[in-house]
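User: Hi! I'm working on a homework problem where we have to compare a predicted structure to a textbook description. Could you give me the structure for the chain below?
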Amino acid sequence: MENEEGLQADGESDPKAPIPVSEVDAWENIRDDDIMQQQSAIRAEEAEKVPFIGDKEPLSVLAAEYESGSPILLKKIKVLGEKYGSIRRTRGDGNCFFRGFMFSYLEHILESQDQAEVDRVTTNVEKCRETLQALGYADFTFEDFFALFLEQLESVVQGKETSISHDELVIRSRDQSISDYIVMFFRFVTSGEIKRRSEFFEPFILGMTNATATVEQFCKSSVEPMGEESDHVHITALSDALGVPIRVVYLDRSTYDIDHVIVNHHDFIPSAGHLPSAGGGSSETTKPIVTLLYRPGHYDILYLK
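Assistant: Happy to help. Predicted structure tokens:
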């Protein structure tokens, strides 16, 4: 029963009464970008629970992860297990491709002690430096990143005072001050390569974006900033710039026949200009040095049996 002031008995408000203006304003202020920022914050909080580079684990952990999920994925994981034995996870913070590449490549040098490969990639790093300078980048914007990468590259070559062990490589790869700097090194190298060969990359960029972004805009918004995810354009550019073959194995739900599933992969083989001449070096230049597992939006490191 209402009293004369239009309020219900027992202190209950009238459901037909207008919502206070201040509350309406509050809801109107919750825009799509606010929701997206909140979701990004949640993802970032979850990502921080995972180290930049995880421990090496048996591939069976993937099967356990998808145990109650897609039967197609479970079959693909079984097929994957015929060739690959282990996985090393990376943090899903948008930098997973570069962090995975960094660790896998340095681990390869540490285990192979391939001095010819070290010399070759060092030469290509110098070419990348010259590319950025020719594009108008000031040295101070990228020099520290380049210096730290070369320092880490030299540290995995054994027999020196600065040489490190595999355990120390893992520790360094989990150190944000080191890992982030090397990610930025890769991002500058990738951006420089895309800009240097803009005519080659432009059609791919237009196919990915709203068809209005220029190569310059793409690099500024989708390559150089930390946290921006990588796709085939980034991988192609980095592989070509450094001359490092990369294999990406795709774990997704795509299939033509559920009874005969296959796991697709793509090998990113550097353009000839960045590879050593025939017989010049001990590396098998067309064989992938780095192998990454791609699940939609994320890259981890894969190991052969």
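For your comparison, note the following. Strands lie at 53-58, 84-90, 246-250, 265-268, 290-295, 298-304. Residues 292 and 301 are 5 Å apart (CA to CA). Good luck with the assignment!
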